[in-house]
Design a protein that fits this description.
The complex is a heterotrimer of chains A (345), B (254) and C (287).
Chain A: H1 12-30, H2 38-49, H3 54-76, H4 85-100, H5 107-129, H6 134-154, H7 156-159, H8 184-205, H9 208-218, H10 220-225, H11 230-256, H12 266-279, H13 285-304, H14 306-325, H15 334-342
Chain B: E1 6-15, E2 18-28, E3 33-37, H1 44-52, E4 59-64, E5 67-68, H2 74-79, E6 82-85, H3 97-109, H4 123-135, H5 151-164, E7 169-173, H6 184-192, E8 199-203, H7 207-213, E9 216-221, E10 224-229, H8 231-236, H9 238-248
Parallel strand pairs in B: 3-8, 3-9, 6-7, 7-8
Antiparallel strand pairs in B: 1-2, 1-4, 4-5, 9-10
Chain C: H1 2-33, H2 40-58, H3 62-83, H4 93-115, E1 131-134, E2 137-140, H5 141-163, H6 165-175, H7 177-182, H8 187-213, H9 219-222, H10 224-234, H11 239-260, H12 267-278
Antiparallel strand pairs in C: 1-2
Helix pairs in contact in C: 1-5, 1-6, 1-8, 1-10, 1-11, 2-3, 2-4, 2-8, 3-8, 5-6, 6-8, 10-11, 10-12, 11-12
The chains are: A mainly alpha (345), B alpha/beta (254), C mainly alpha (287).
């Protein structure tokens, strides 16, 4: 059946069908699919099936949130940054200092505080640095994060230096739910925060703004030629990304009850990048898969031999780049078709 | 007297010691159908880049509807009503045809500033996008990623994106370039049916297209305007023929 | 006061020479192919360990060990270039970053497994230990040696780039790769050669660094930042750029540590950031 262009309006009915189909695809993509409940069910299942692994579970949820923040700016907007730990760290310290210096231990306030500090930093650094690209941007983001860490060490009376700040103890959640040493309440707390933030992120990436970010990633020249205020779009995305990373950092400080300058380490920026890439950037769920995979594997393998773990991650990374991202493996494997679906946002 | 739709005064551009545009003057009335021709390397695409702001002029002025836009960025000029197609397609290859047009409209109407509404909920944008696709007979490809389309139809999408910006000034850079002859009629039909209110400047090599389409022609050579006139005047001008004949003996194109 | 300035200049110069020797390979690689090679530090580290091993296992003298490491690591790097790097020319920056980070992880893990995570030291020959008196002051002989090697290399590289045929081809390809290809220059071969030489020099730098900085597997990552800074600040693809970048950053770092000790570790980053903000393609970079 050919909706042939040379036919006159007797093909009007077919055109109408095609139009509806086109519109429908866009609308349907935004709707929630049943499969999207899976990660949450899995998270809840983990809560009941592995009650002794709640500490690991917690850290995993936090890393998922951190990876989600990176996905917005890297997966969707296509900005490669090596310094995202800066916002994670600022969020952590924001939440920690609210308790230790201001004596305010209500947990949600800690999250807001961490998010705010990180967002302000994200806005300022994004406004300044997002004019640059390539090696310059890479080096700038890397350098500013290192400088942040080092100034943290300089003001170690304030930040506790590399020894850190202990005693970041949050008050019971909603004034009611106290925290047990097994981390059950922490887990549900993190899961709740993750759910809310994820919902917001999902709305953002499926909004016209989110589509514009994808446009910027796919062809920035074209976006400029369309009159898009590219720089401001990126600054907004970067700020949101920083805020979310800040929330992850705040959760980290709160659930670990302490924070050190190690939160700014390059290892953190690299780890979250690896997690996101392993799971697949640009479709949000890559953050879940990648972070969960990474954290579980690290827990199992890194204890046995840290060298093997690091080697394995390196090898996996190369494999993912060559075979999944670049599609070097011939298409005779249906796996690559499945994986390619994943990379289309 | 109403201002010209597009006016260029003494436009110059140097890259270091090399002058790629030397004192170019041009004025297009509203609704113009103007062609820009010249041998390879004459600076035609550079001129379009200078008009759209992709390249900043070293000196001179560009005016749109009498307003100076020389110091504005590419994005700002686009928002004033300039749209262009590129000589080599600049599309969102991994996105669907519909999404390509959607972005053009979304940026124009400011819909893309919204972060909370769902993209699929912007029915006005979607309907307008479908209208554009329909007028270019691209609706059947609406859900296909652009990279899957044959080149000729991709070129149509390139034009569709420009039209979706609802420009006052449309710059077409070799719209039929690279299109197999079996598909080029698609492009030519679209160009000949453009809204007469839009001012159109087209860079083209194919003389049949130029003579069929243009009411006035500017000939560019080595970064400067050689001459300007009606198609008859230009085809009779011996200097024009000389530079084209000369071109056939030229060294490899760079 | 003068004494302090002399010390800073001297130490800064030695540090800058080390940075130059390692970074020049990264700079030309990036300038020639636009390839972001974050594994460059790993080649430097590998070079250091090779020097260590040849000296301790086979009693090779220090200078010979340095020469060997240059040749061996340079040659070995060709395998990586052909097998891995070549697949990613024209790939996006992210893929290159990821692949080379993966390679670096593998390298660090491998060397940690075989050599352990602790710092290794090298026994430098007696004529390089001790002090040399120049004028009214005495300077550590090893650093003088470093400066001499660095200077010799600058001269050799300048001659190679400026006066030889192959140097001209490299410069042409860095300037405009497509044009170079169209006049018949085999850019891929050129890249393999420059990659090998660059990695060999990185290895040489790694060997020289043992005495200066100590060697651990994490060397690959810790100092990578500095190499990136030098290339970014100097401008990729330019010998003079890399030299100037190394000097500026080396001096800034040394001066910072002398005058501000604790806060001085800041200086190198602050200077780099300031320069990049104003000249994102580097001091000698092309737009």
């Amino acid at each position: 059946m050919d909706a042939n262009k040379s036919l006159p309006s007797s093909a009007g009915g077919e055109i109408a069908v095609e139009r509806a189909r086109g519109a429908g695809l866009l609308v349907r993509r935004d709707r929630f699919r049943p499969a999207e409940a899976l990660p949450w069910l899995a998270a809840l299942a983990a809560f009941f099936i592995f009650p002794n692994q709640m500490v690991l579970g917690n850290q995993t949820l936090i890393m998922i949130l951190f990876a989600l923040s990176l996905d917005l700016i890297l997966g969707y907007a296509g900005i490669v940054t090596l310094g995202h730990a800066a916002f994670f760290g600022l969020g952590a310290y924001g939440a920690a200092l609210l308790i230790t210096d201001f004596g305010w231990s209500e947990p949600i306030s800690g999250l807001v505080c961490g998010a705010l500090v990180a967002a302000i930093a994200g806005f300022l650094s994004g406004w300044l640095l997002l004019r640059y690209r390539g090696l310059a941007f890479l080096v700038l983001t890397l350098s500013t994060t290192i400088m942040l860490q080092q100034s943290g060490n300089l003001f170690r009376d304030f930040t506790g230096g590399y020894d850190g700040i202990p005693g970041v103890n949050i008050a019971p959640l909603f004034g009611h739910f106290d925290y047990d040493i097994y981390g059950h309440t922490y887990y549900l707390y993190c899961l709740g925060v993750l759910l809310i933030v994820f919902y917001c992120m999902r709305r953002i990436v499926y909004s016209p703004f989110g589509r514009a970010l994808v446009g910027i990633r796919e062809n920035i020249d074209r976006m400029n030629a369309l009159g898009s205020p590219v720089h401001w779009r990126l600054v907004v995305a970067y700020t949101i990304s920083a805020a979310v990373a800040g929330i992850a950092g705040a959760l980290f400080a709160q659930t670990n009850a302490f924070v050190t300058l190690g939160v700014f380490d390059f290892d953190q920026s690299a780890a979250v990048l690896v997690m996101l890439i392993l799971g697949g950037a640009g479709w949000l769920y890559g953050a879940f898969i990648g972070a969960a995979l990474y954290m579980v594997l690290q827990n199992e393998l890194a204890k046995a031999s840290p060298a093997f773990w690091q080697f394995g991650i390196g090898l996996l990374l190369i494999g993912v780049v060559l075979f999944v991202r670049r599609g070097t493996l011939p298409r005779m494997l249906n796996v690559s078709r499945l994986l390619r679906w994943r990379t289309q946002p | 007297m109403t201002a010209a739709a597009l006016e260029i005064r003494n436009l110059r551009k140097n890259f270091g010691a090399i002058e790629v545009a030397s004192g170019i003057n041009l004025a297009l009335p509203h609704g113009a159908r103007h062609a820009l021709i010249g041998p390879n390397g004459a600076g035609k695409t550079t001129l379009v880049n200078l008009i759209t702001g992709r390249v900043r002029a070293s000196s001179g002025q560009v005016l749109l509807d009498g307003e100076e836009i020389t110091s504005l960025s590419q994005a700002a000029r686009t928002r004033r009503g300039i749209a262009r197609t590129f000589q080599v397609n600049q599309l969102f290859r991994n996105l669907t045809v519909l999404e390509n047009i959607y972005l053009a409209i979304g940026e124009r109407t400011g819909a893309c500033n919204r972060l909370w509404r769902s993209a699929g909920g912007e029915t006005a944008v979607i309907e307008e996008a479908l209208d554009h696709l329909q007028s270019l007979a691209l609706v059947s490809d609406a859900c296909r990623p652009v990279r899957e389309l044959p080149y000729g139809r991709q070129r149509l999408v390139e034009i569709a994106i420009a039209l979706a910006q609802q420009p006052k000034l449309l710059l077409l850079d070799e719209p039929a370039a690279g299109v197999p002859s079996s598909e080029s009629h698609l492009i030519l039909d679209v160009i000949s049916q453009l809204d007469p209110n839009i001012t159109v400047l087209i860079i083209e090599h194919d003389m049949d297209v130029v003579f069929r389409f243009a009411k006035r022609i500017t000939v560019l050579a080595a970064g400067a305007v050689l001459t300007e006139g009606t198609p008859d005047e230009i085809s009779a001008d011996p200097r024009v023929r000389a530079i084209y004949l000369g071109e056939k003996r030229e060294a490899p194109r760079g | 006061m003068v004494n302090t300035i002399v010390s800073i200049l001297f130490d800064g110069l030695a540090w800058a020479m080390f940075l130059f020797i390692v970074s020049i390979g990264l700079s030309v690689t990036m300038g020639l192919m636009g390839f972001v090679n974050l594994a460059h530090g790993a080649f430097a580290m590998a070079g250091g360990y090779l020097v260590l091993t040849t000296m301790s296992a086979w009693g090779v003298p220090f200078l010979a060990a340095l020469a060997i490491t240059f040749v061996v690591v340079g040659a070995a790097s060709v395998l990586f270039e052909r097998a891995l790097y070549a697949r990613l020319y024209g790939a996006g920056e992210l893929d290159q970053v990821l692949m080379t980070i993966g390679l670096t992880f593998m390298a660090i893990a491998t060397y940690t497994y075989f050599y352990g995570p602790l710092t290794h030291a090298v026994r430098i020959p007696d004529y390089l230990a001790g002090q040399i008196t120049i004028g009214a002051r005495s300077f550590p002989a090893y650093r003088v040696f470093l400066i001499v090697v660095g200077a010799a290399l600058v001269a050799a590289l300048w001659y190679g780039f400026d006066r030889t045929n192959i140097g001209a081809k490299i410069r042409a390809s860095v300037d405009n790769r497509r044009m170079a290809q169209s006049v018949g220059i085999d850019v891929d071969l050129l890249f393999t050669i420059t990659f090998a030489v660059g990695s060999g020099l990185a290895a040489l730098g790694g060997g020289l660094a043992i005495q200066l900085l100590g060697l651990t597997p994490n060397f690959a990552i810790i100092y990578l930042v500095f190499f990136l800074l030098v290339v970014a600040v100097g401008g990729s693809g330019s010998i003079w750029g890399t030299l100037v970048g190394a000097l500026v950053l080396g001096m800034a770092d040394t001066a910072g540590k002398y005058f501000f000790s604790d806060a001085g570790t800041f200086a190198i980053y602050a200077v780099a950031v300031l320069i990049l903000l104003f000249k994102p393609t580097g001091l000698y970079g092309r737009e």
